[in-house]
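Consider the following assembly input.
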Amino acid sequence: MIRLSMLQLRAQAITAAVALIAFAVLLAATGPHLASLYAASGLRDCQPASCGQRANSFLQQVNAASPYGTVYLLSIILIALTPAITGLFWGAPLLARELETGTFALAWSQSVTRARWLAVKLTVGGLAAMAVTEALSLLFAWWAAPLARAGALGGSGSSLALNQFNPLAFVTHGITPLGYAAFAFTLGVTAGALIRRTVPAMAVTLAIFAALQIAMPLWIRPNLFPASHTTVAITFNSDTLNIYTTHSPHTFTFTLATDDGLAGQPEAWIRSSGAADAAGHPVSSVVPSACSPAASSSGPGPALANCLASRGIRLAVAYQPASRYWPLQCAETGIYLVLSFALAGYCFWRISRLS
Amino acid sequence: MNAVVQASGLGKQYRRTWALRDCTLAIPEGHVAGLVGPNGAGKTTLLRLAAGILTPTRGTITVLGQHPGAGPAQLARVGFVAQDTPTYSRMTVADHLRLGAWLNPGWDNHLARQRISQLALNPKQRAGSLSGGQRAQLALTLALAKRPGLLILDEPVASLDPLARREFLQGLMEAVAGQGLSVLLSSHLVADLERVCDYLVVLVASRVRVAGEVSDLLASHHRLSGPRRDPGILPAGQEIITESHTDKQSNLLVRTDEPVLDPAWAVKPVSLEDLVLAYMSQAADDRPASPQRLKVAS
């Protein structure tokens, strides 16, 4: 049965292998030069004081060199799409095509129970989808390692070194590709079992998977773990803090400039930030009328900052520290694996009473 | 009598409609049995239930003494060629044989290869590019080479041209003679069944109208024609299947195990086709009960 499902996956496997090899060649062709740029940047043994600046200049240099920005973006998009592609083209037809063409009667009248038939098909197809997605992810992680290190050293904010919690970065690195691939594949199989026609099953798979990929970073992932809280002083000369907007001439709204991240924690995931008074209560906007007119009318500046600081107004930040990266990765992958097993279980129940 | 297929009160419901309802029948071992009936009689459903592709909504069915599809061992004992003889269009002929070898412990590779070469099929050809007759032969090869005790074929020749039809049935007969297996096949064409079957089941609206060995059926059915008369006065033991009357003449198709002695009748034998048509054209509630009809609590 394993041999049969490999035989029947042959065409898809060849397509996947060609895509993987093409991707590997592209990365292998550009990776060494990227690594040499990194070596030349002196980032490997930089002093903490100069690291951020060096990282920024390295990333700017890479950005200016033509192919890297494109390769970086295309790779991330490709890896993010791979689970959907395998779910659509491997998962959805698995049952739908058998039911559509009537070959299920051939398959299920061999000396193999249909439960075993499905178990092997799900295992082989699901593992193949997971392997392909994770292989792409690992290849890319190898290629982008210099960029990631520069990002971690304080050069984040560049489009070439996305924060590790960035929605696109999070689903294309670590172990989440495994969860997404498994889920998209079983989702496709389930849609096929329910709809019994390949093309509509593919459309439904795509719609549901896309909806979940949007819902996950917006509503689910932020709430998997409670956020950490901290306060930072409002300063105007800092590298890491900016006034974000000014409303009327004497009203300022403060947020942490997410581009720059939290001082000392460039890899943290900033959830929200805003001014808060000494008691810790949020202050939606600050009217520094109590400060000297000169300080308030001169706009954001050291005088205003000092005035605010003297009143105990600081910036409250809710964030996920970088150390939550792996717990979040595990939780999200776990959620998708559990969903995959639930869908697979439903498929078994469904085919036991199909047709 | 050992039954290869035995059903009692068998029913299969799809959402609100019953594809087969309250079907009771027993087909004895060692026959090539033909299942014939009008469209919608439930032939396909019955065969799929017997092959274990479907599970019954009501009633029971046993095939070779076991529940169909009960496990790998039972699946191995039943060969099934579904309607329109489905094959994987993208897989080659050789791939199909591989499939059969991998999935069936009792696979007879010699038989499979022999049949493929006899049929002059190119092993490297994709099943999708085979003709309808070749595809049917490939599906039959798969079902035969797993060495089943019962081979079930659902309208195997329905979409074939007359030549391919004859070749397919010939191949089937040769295989049956060689392997000594029981066969159950359906068709709505009596001519096809006449060629190969020695047992016949007429199924109309899920009910068995008549079942028996073809030779017995032909011997016990007669076409009577004579001067017009009231059919109610026939002797006991003569059962009217169909009747038609003109002003002067009565034409009857009767079933009787006794010879027809009344000299007023001109007695003629019936063809199998006439016999089947007669049973199929009977109104549904015209006969109180067919021999195997049972009451089943629902």
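Chain A has two domains: 2-224+325-352, 228-323. Ask yourself how this observation constrains the way the partners meet.
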